[in-house]
């Protein structure tokens, strides 16, 4: 029973495609039937290779690849994945090294956590980073004030230079640290490359079609396969649901994942500006107090701005001892979208020449752009002293000041599909024996694990089918047992079915 003779994987995103790749490399599946299903035609007749869906959740110019986590298991996984990104997964500029500025608001990183401070999230990540970084604390640069952050970026202090600098470690201020073991990946190009690798290996059959529902045995005790919207049926011994934002719908479990969209915005830099930022070793900027991050310059010389997911914000506030309710149940509101082929996908939002959102019926987009502008002005904005004689003390940086005030040139929707705890669900559905496996809940932060997540999923698929010989290499953390517990299926959601 440990090796299924046939598999259907629904979804060619991070979880599904990486699993197909892992299966293609495993000799145990050399003679097994493996079908990878997705509603997007990656290999259309006029394409020379694979073309990613430009509106999919994994379609992105610059996805953050970081190993800095306040949660040990994910920090270890990210460190393992980082080594692969710096190998063939990241070749041809699919991965770019860029240091990371990780920040929050509160007391000094050198002091214990205090209630109501978002910097606690950073302190926890900093402690883990010190353990994982060769040289420990001495190798990590701490920025213990907003002025130090602005100085690192090349900007003036946030206060006029003639005022005393606040050095009180207990005072509330923007504080953080620099991690040099980070970067970003061209997500669209990475998905295209991995898809071509799967095709090259020749073990997986790729099928284009939208899955409408699961197919069950007569006694409803097993899943036999999937049914498409056109009525076509595919059967297999094992069905894997890795359908991103559609997973909850296909499984009929409304609260398995929180599905909603946020807005991502871009600012276009000139060639000279992008060159200058790279010369300064410009970092990825993450402010967990605002719940905003900025990545780039990317290959198109753009800076990208995004929001933390709701679950990500809850995670930050939990470290600050602030309890936040879960998002309102949007399941009923989502029902009307399930028949819309665009649901769960991103899309362009119209902006004017001045960077304003043209759709004024969309206040969420307006709020997002306002958040990004405040984030920019805090770090890159002028001090307001231009034109005032400050006896040479004002070191205004016109490059940064101009970027801080520049209109957004592009806005798009990005879909999230994450669990309340931000832990993935990678486990068998308990109601159907070993015929239905679920791999979902990763839209918020799974992409960085693309090089290794398929191996972990496959190991759990086999281990839970009774193959006790399956294990991860010695010294690799977290262990398979830890992952099994961390990513278990939430059986409590099935109560009352």
Automatic annotation (TrEMBL):
Residue ranges constituting the FAD dependent oxidoreductase domain according to the UniProt record: 7-457
GO molecular function: flavin adenine dinucleotide binding; L-pipecolate oxidase activity; proline dehydrogenase activity; sarcosine oxidase activity
Obligatory cofactor(s): FAD
Superkingdom, natural source: Eukaryota
Chain ranges passing through the membrane: none
Oxidoreductase keyword on record: yes
Keywords: FAD, Flavoprotein, Oxidoreductase
Membership in a protein family: Belongs to the MSOX/MTOX family.
Protein name, per record: FAD dependent oxidoreductase domain-containing protein
Species per Swiss-Prot/TrEMBL record: Aspergillus felis
């Amino acid at each position: 029973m440990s090796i299924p003779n046939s598999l259907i994987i629904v979804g060619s995103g991070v979880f599904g495609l990486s699993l197909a790749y892992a299966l293609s490399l495993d000799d145990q599946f050399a003679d097994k039937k493996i079908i990878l299903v997705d509603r997007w035609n990656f290999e259309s007749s006029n394409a020379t290779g694979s073309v990613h869906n430009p509106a999919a959740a994994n379609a992105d110019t610059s996805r953050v690849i970081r190993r800095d986590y306040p949660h040990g298991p994910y920090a270890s996984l990210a460190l393992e994945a980082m080594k692969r990104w710096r190998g063939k997964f990241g070749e041809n500029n699919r991965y770019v090294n860029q240091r990371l500025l990780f920040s929050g608001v509160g007391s000094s990183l050198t002091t214990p956590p205090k209630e109501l401070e978002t910097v606690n999230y950073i302190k926890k990540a900093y402690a883990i980073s010190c353990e994982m970084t060769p040289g420990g604390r001495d190798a990590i640069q701490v920025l213990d004030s907003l002025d130090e952050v602005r100085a690192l970026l090349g900007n003036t202090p946030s206060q006029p230079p003639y005022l005393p600098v606040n050095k009180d470690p207990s005072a509330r201020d923007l504080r953080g640290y620099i991690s040099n073991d980070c970067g970003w990946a061209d997500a669209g190009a990475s998905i295209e490359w991995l898809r071509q690798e799967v095709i090259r290996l020749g073990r997986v059959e790729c099928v284009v079609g939208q899955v409408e529902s699961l197919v069950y045995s007569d006694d409803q005790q097993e899943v036999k396969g999937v049914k498409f919207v056109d009525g076509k049926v595919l059967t297999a011994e094992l069905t894997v649901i890795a359908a991103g934002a559609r997973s909850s719908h296909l499984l009929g479990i409304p609260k398995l994942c929180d599905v909603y969209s946020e807005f991502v915005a871009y600012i276009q830099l000139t060639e000279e500006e992008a060159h200058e930022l790279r010369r300064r070793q410009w970092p990825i900027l993450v402010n967990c107090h605002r719940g905003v991050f900025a990545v780039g310059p990317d290959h198109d010389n753009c800076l990208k701005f995004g929001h933390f997911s709701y679950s990500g914000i809850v995670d930050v506030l939990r470290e600050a001892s602030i309890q936040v309710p879960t998002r309102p149940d949007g399941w009923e509101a989502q029902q009307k979208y399930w028949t819309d082929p665009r649901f769960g996908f991103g899309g362009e939002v119209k902006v004017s020449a001045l960077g304003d959102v043209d759709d004024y019926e969309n206040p969420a987009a307006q709020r997002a752009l306002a958040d990004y502008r405040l984030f920019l002005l805090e770090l890159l904005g002028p001090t307001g002293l231009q034109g005032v004689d400050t006896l040479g003390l004002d070191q205004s940086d016109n490059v940064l000041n101009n970027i801080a005030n520049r209109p957004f040139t592009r806005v798009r929707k990005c879909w999230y599909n994450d669990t309340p705890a931000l832990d993935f669900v990678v486990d068998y559905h308990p109601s159907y024996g070993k015929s239905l496996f679920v791999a979902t809940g990763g839209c918020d932060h799974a992409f960085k694990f693309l090089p290794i997540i398929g191996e972990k999923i496959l190991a759990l698929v086999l281990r839970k089918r009774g193959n006790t010989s399956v294990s991860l290499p010695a010294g690799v953390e977290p262990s398979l047992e830890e992952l099994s517990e961390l990513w278990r299926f939430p059986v409590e959601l099935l109560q009352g079915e």
